[in-house]
Amino acid sequence: MDIDRSAFGPDTTTDEVVDGLDLSDLSVLITGASGGLGAETARALASKGASVVITARDLTKASAAVDAIKASTGNDDIEIEQLELGSLASIRGFGERWVDGHETLDILINNAGVMACPQGTTDDGFERQFGTNHLGHFLLTGLVAPTLVANGSGRIVNLSSRGHQRDDVHLDDVNFEHRDYDKWAAYGQAKTANVLHAVELDRRLRDRNVRAFAVHPGTIMTDLSRHMQQQDFEALQSRRPAGSMGLKSVAAGAATTVYAATAPELDGMGGIYLEDCGIAPIDDDSQVSGVRSYAVDPERARQLWTLSEGLTGQTFDL
Ligand SMILES: NC(=O)c1ccc[n+]([C@@H]2O[C@H](COP(=O)([O-])OP(=O)(O)OC[C@H]3O[C@@H](n4cnc5c(N)ncnc54)[C@H](OP(=O)(O)O)[C@@H]3O)[C@@H](O)[C@H]2O)c1
Questions:
Q1: The whole model's pTM is what?
Q2: By three-state DSSP, how is residue 187 classified?
Q3: How far apart are the first and last CA of the chain?
Q4: Mean pLDDT over all residues of the chain?
Q5: Is the CB of 32 under 6 A from ligand 1?
Q6: 122 belongs to a structural domain
Q7: Residue 2 has what pLDDT?
């Protein structure tokens, strides 16, 4: 029976999103895919023939994930590359290897992330969540973008989160140097940055048929919650309908990413925020859906781009 794509929603799974698609012409790069949503995203795309490169910082963990994907899909065209997003040097090294080894790329999925960690910094002194989740992917995307542009068409998917509703980007203090550190405000800032980054990427690249999307996957139990404490789980529960944690399976959680990367119905679109395999409305009030207006503000997106170029010391001719 054919899948009814117009019925996609919160329970839609990755396999339903790729049902009937032939992805054998596509090359995909996914960050942080040694487990969680990234590994499931890689599996679903590989199951329809895509050529996939995943990045990881723990190569042993990544090898186990890739072996399982190869075994379950029969697709051997899956490679692992070492990448530490908390190090500009690691990202630059990866970027050089990437453009040396690849002429084109169809889909970049900026998936890796950390959430609500204790205050800390990346190797280059940036607040850990903003540095890893945004600045790392900002630099990476700029370095591999020439292969997307050379391809003649492509998509970029940034994993954001409903957590973006927690806070805007503080352009004058992204590193919490002049305010008290709050782990959820830091996650919110970083995840808002992921949306703004997609908005500005789309503005800069759409003339060359490379489109960018931001995604909220849902709430899924993965290793992302490793820094959460009992009170954090209780706060999460208090925002959910009675008796429900509102949790998704990993296959349903990764579905919106796979949808953003492959859905034919998104052709010609970009610079938008997706959730539950659909386009989310701009909403400044809801705590359970939608994207905040500050996260899709084109002027803020431009300002964040300029700030990010300054912080990483790298400008991009995009
Ligand atoms: N799960 C949810 O409910 C949820 C909700 C909203 C948004 N998201 C977003 O979805 C994305 C994937 O999350 P997930 O749930 O799949 O979490 P996960 O299982 O913890 O996966 C995160 C991945 O990012 C990698 N990573 C973390 N820090 C890194 C660094 N400094 N350099 C390179 N890689 C790094 C991790 O590598 P290691 O294995 O080495 O740690 C892991 O592969 C994240 O961006 C997250 O913010 C998730």
A1: 0.97
A2: helix
A3: 44
A4: 96
A5: yes
A6: yes
A7: 79
What pLDDT band is residue 39 in, cutting at 50, 70 and 90?
Answer: very high
Q: Please give the single-letter amino acid code of residue 199.
A: V
For the chain, what is the domain count?
A: 1
With a 6 A CB cut-off, is 158 part of the ligand 1 pocket? no
- Mutate which of 223, 247, 256, 258 for ligand 1? The one with the most ligand atoms within 8 Å of its CB, which is 223
Q: Are 32 and 292 in contact (CB under 8 A)?
A: no
Residue 223 lies in a domain: yes
Residue 66 CA: distances (Å) to CA of 3, 5, 33, 35:
28, 29, 9, 10
pLDDT at residue 244 tops 60 = no
Determine, yes or no, domain membership for 286. yes
pLDDT band at 246 (very low <50, low <70, confident <90, very high): confident
pLDDT at 241 over 70: no
Ligand 1 center from residue 33 Cα (angstroms): 8
CATH code (residue 286): 3.40.50.720
Percent helix, strand and coil across the chain, each to the nearest 5: 50, 15, 40
Asked if residue 317 belongs to a domain, the reply is: no
CA 17-20-25 angle, 5° bins: 95
The span from the CA of 129 to the CA of 115, in Å, is 7
Tens of pLDDT, residues 276-303? 999 999 999 999 999 999 999 999 999 9
- Ligand 1 mean position to 61 CA, how many Å? 13
Domain span including residue 147 = 5-312
Angle, CA 67 vertex, CA 228 and CA 148 arms, to 5°: 80
